[in-house]
Amino acid sequence: MAAPLPITVEDLNIYYGDFLAVEDVNVQIMPRSVTALIGPSGCGKSTFLRTLNRMHEVIPGAYAKGKVQIDGEDIYDPRVDPVNVRRRVGMVFQKPNPFPTMSIRDNVLAGVKLNSSRISKAAADELMESSLRGANLWNEVKDRLDKPGLGLSGGQQQRLCIARTIAVKPEVVLMDEPCSALDPISTLAIEDLIHEMKQDYTIVIVTHNMQQASRVSDRTGFFNIAGTGKPGHLIEIDDTEKMFTNPANKQTEDYISGRFG
Ligand SMILES: Nc1ncnc2c1ncn2[C@@H]1O[C@H](COP(=O)(O)OP(=O)(O)OP(=O)(O)O)[C@@H](O)[C@H]1O
Ligand SMILES: [Mg+2]
């Protein structure tokens, strides 16, 4: 369950080899709330998101400098095991990515089985059901748990991936454009789910859809780049309502009013 402390990012610089992709981020991400990240393509939203669970560095040559404190612990401290960080901070991607050969049941438990091999059948069934309920998918799949995950619709597959993510009981859930491949009805289902999930998790979502950001988030952060090859910056972060009605920064105002990007 979500840590009670904010995620504190200090002096974070994010590189791909020599290329500084995102420069000098300082931000606090509030617990048990939804933070949306918006900004034009290439400004570093996905890059930043992946530094919050140490997924960035799996790309060859990629690294980050600075501090990211989760529940008071710097996840970049050399003593910290990145595998453990990725368990505490789950991630949902743009394109639903269920394991193609696995049943619905096995998809939900995939991360759990990797993490702790010894879990009883009864405990596994209970966890599977609660995760599917948590992802608002249980009623739609309870009669076909042994059928392939790929047999679900796109929106159902995305909720299956959310169930898989929450089955390992993370504190934080990162989502990178989780609805961009979905129809409007499935999108609303995911948005409702995000809204419910914030009671238990700290959620950070990247979205290109500003209506979505304003519907689903409590806080919104705006990233921007000055030009190609320049690093992205977090320009402004504030309460979502303020960001969309009365942002402090002119760049934010231009972006949200569609004058740019
Ligand atoms: N694997 C990579 N190797 C090298 N450079 C990369 C890699 N991934 C992203 N970049 C670069 O880092 C910068 C930020 O990219 P990123 O994907 O984070 O942007 P984004 O804001 O998520 O964009 P979009 O809205 O299009 O998804 C871009 O200049 C991009 O070309
Ligand atoms: Mg992206």
UniProtKB/TrEMBL annotation:
GO terms for biological process: phosphate ion transmembrane transport. One of its GO terms (cellular component) is membrane. It comes from the Bacteria. Keywords: ATP-binding, Nucleotide-binding, Translocase, Transport. PROSITE patterns: ABC_TRANSPORTER_1 (PS00211), ABC_TRANSPORTER_2 (PS50893). One of its GO terms (molecular function) is ATP binding. Residues 7-250 form the ABC transporter domain. It holds the Pfam family ABC_tran. This is Phosphate ABC transporter ATP-binding protein. The gene is pstB.
